[in-house]
Every structure is written in C-alpha cells, then in structure tokens.
Amino acid sequence: MRRFKILATARALPPRVLTNAELETMIDTTDKWIVERTGIRERRIAAPEVATSDLAAEALVSACRAGGLELDAIDVLIVATSTPDTLFPSTACWVQHKLGLRGPAAFDVSAGCSGWLYGMELAASLIGSGGARTAAVIGAEVMSKVVNWEDRSTCVLFGDGAGAAILTACDEDRGLLGSAWGADGTLARVLYQPAGGTRQPASAESVAARAHTVHMEGNTVFKHAVTAMSEGAIEALKRAGVSPEDVTLLIPHQANTRIMEATRARTAIAPARMVSIVDRYGNMSAATIPVALDEARAAGRLQDGDIVAMTAFGTGFTWAAQVLRV
Ligand code: ACO
C-alpha cells in the first residue's frame, strides 16, 4: 500500500452552459440522439480568453483553500491535459506563472482521458518513495478549442473543466491499495489531433483541413473503452484485495453513460454506487474523474476510510484504474 491522504479536492467549471437544444440550432442533431447515445444533456464551454491553465489554477487555489494549505507547501505540481495552453512550456508551468509560484517541480502528463489517474499513480509513487510530501494533481481541459464544431459526431461529446486533488503523506492506513495501468500506441490514430506538433506543423493547409481538431473513430473507441475500463478496474480490485461489495463509490471516466454502465456491470459494483456527472458536463477528458470525485465528496458520498474505485480510458490508447482508501 502506498500511503497518502487526499487532503482536499476542488473543481473549476466555466459558467457558460451549452445545452443540447442549443446544439440543435448549430448542427444537424437532436437532444434525443445525444441523450440516447451518450447521456449528455449539457456541457460547459470556456470563454475565448480562458485557457486550460486558468481553469487548472482556479481549481488548485480552491483546493488549497479547502485544505487550509499555502500554495508553497506543494512539492510537485502535475497537470494532466490533452489541451495544453502551449506545446511548451507545460500547462503546469503556466499555472505557476499565473499564481507566481516558484520552486516546486511542475510538469504535464499527456495520457488523454486517463491522464489524471496517470498523474495520481506518479504522485502516489513520489510520496511513497519520499520524493515528495505534498503533491497537487490536476486534470484540466479546454476541449471546446480543439473540437470541430461542424463535426456532429464529436462536437456533442466534449466539455471544459478542471478538477484538483492535493495528496499528502500520512502514516494512517490510507492511500493506494491497488492499481493497473497501460497503453497501446498501435491504436494512436483512432483518436487524435493530427496537426500542431512536429509531424504536421501548423500551416494554412492544416488549418483549412481542420487537422487541429479531434479526429475519432467513435465505434472503435467505444469497444476498447468498455473492455479496458472494466478489465482495469477488475485487476486493480484484485491487486487491492477488495471485493466489489466493499467499494463505496465507483468513479469511471465520464465519456458517456453507455460506456460507464457497461463498465460498472462488468465490475459487479452496485448501480447506486456509480458516480455520474456526464449529463451536466459531457466528456471533460482528464478532468472528469477529479471533478466527479470532488462533487461526490462535497455531497457527503465519501467518508474517511471509504474505498473508491476509479477507472479511465483515453487517446493513445491509454488506460488506468486505481482503488483508494480515502
Ligand atoms: N446527431 C445525430 N446523428 C449523429 C450524430 C449526432 N450528433 N453523430 C453521429 N450521428 C449519426 C451518424 O452520422 C450515423 O448516421 P448514419 O447511420 O446515417 O451513417 C449514426 O448517427 C450512427 O453513428 P455511429 O457513429 O455508428 O453512432 P454510435 O452509436 O457509435 O454513437 C458515439 C456514436 C456516441 C460517438 C459512440 O461511438 C461513442 O460513444 N463512442 C465513444 C467515443 C468517446 O467517448 N470518445 C471520447 C474520447 S475517448 C474516451 O473518453 C473514452
């Protein structure tokens, strides 16, 4: 067991709500299609001047306030994102820039929708090895700026937001009980943003071809997501020595209700124990699990000593699952 406690969590969500009814006026879609296929009813959209680090910084400051912690008590700052402010420096460094933070190690994790759990795995290991005492792990995305708003098969799915957790070393029996993670880069092109990196730098052609936006084979993602998220969760539970009945809450990555429900059913965790926020926020990629965790804590659904199972899948493909005693 890698011991730590979650000192605090927080979320930052842009105030602007984009409903399915409004999408009906923008593209050839219906509220009925979106709700039946995804469970999403509305999502938040960042204002044009807002970048990922703005949401990440807001979530971090709120988490520090909630935990009664000064910002400079953080030893390591990890931001999980697929929508960084810039290719370099990292969004984590832009968070420091915004908050005037000097000193703590800061870097991004690029693992798509699994990114926050990848960040948690790193933070748990750093705390376990003595490399850090206090770690901030933030999942933050502004997906709306990399979505093709004329592609109805993708633009209805995503939303913007950020969630943060602050982990601190502790001697109590709390922390990471078991985990499983992995990746399969052979499927990299199933879900990706083709241009903007060194493979296809920005050009007039790449902009005209909408190559800076999300390209996705939805059906393929769907099948792999259900398999990887359920098998990951089952493996993490096995390694943790925890049975499904002992799980207080299951927090799956919030891509859509059908993926989440199929994952839950395969893990045999009771329906009432699954946290679902996807109807209100859509798929916020790396931000979905920390936002859901924060909402569950705020609603009193998690008490000290409870066990939470989290599982995610995303571009790469990547997957990660963890079982925590909080
Ligand atoms: N409104 C209305 N019709 C639509 C829309 C829309 N927004 N989007 C697609 N359609 C149409 C298609 O054009 C197609 O029409 P056709 O039969 O005339 O060709 C029809 O609906 C069916 O399309 P499919 O793509 O087969 O629909 P499917 O049932 O697979 O649902 C969806 C699509 C919701 C994208 C599904 O594949 C899915 O959820 N995939 C997972 C993708 C995902 O969650 N990605 C997020 C990133 S990765 C992650 O977070 C796990």
Query: Radius of gyration, Cα only, in angstroms?
Result: 18 Å
Shape, please?
A: globular
How many helices? The count is 11
Which ranges are low-confidence, i.e. pLDDT below 50, for 5 or more consecutive residues? none
- β-strand amount: 15-25%
Biggest sheet, spatial arrangement of strands: 1-9-14-13-12
Main sheet summary? 5 strands, mixed
> Terminal Cα separation, in Å?
12 Å
Give the overall pLDDT as a whole number. 97
Task: Name the bound molecules.
Answer: acetyl coenzyme *A
Helix/strand order: EEEHHEHEHEHEHEEEHEHEHHHEE
* Tally of strands: 14
Helicity level = 25-40%
Written account of the structure:
The protein has helices at residues 20-24, 31-38, 52-67, 91-99, 115-129, 152-155, 204-208, 218-240, 257-267, 278-281, 288-298; strands at residues 2-3, 5-12, 17-19, 42-44, 76-80, 105-109, 134-142, 160-168, 175-183, 191-192, 215-216, 249-252, 307-314, 318-325. Helix content is 34%, strand content 24%. The model has no long low-confidence stretch (mean pLDDT 97). The chain has eleven helices and 14 strands. Helix 4 links the parallel strand 5 and strand 6 (105-109). With 326 residues, it is α+β, with helices and mostly antiparallel strands. The longest helix is centred in the last third of the chain and has 23 residues, at 218-240. It has a five-stranded mixed β-sheet, with helices on both faces. Residues 29, 33-34, 37-38, 113, 152-153, 156-157, 191, 216, 218-219, 221-222, 225, 253, 255-256, 283, 313-314 line the site of acetyl coenzyme *A.
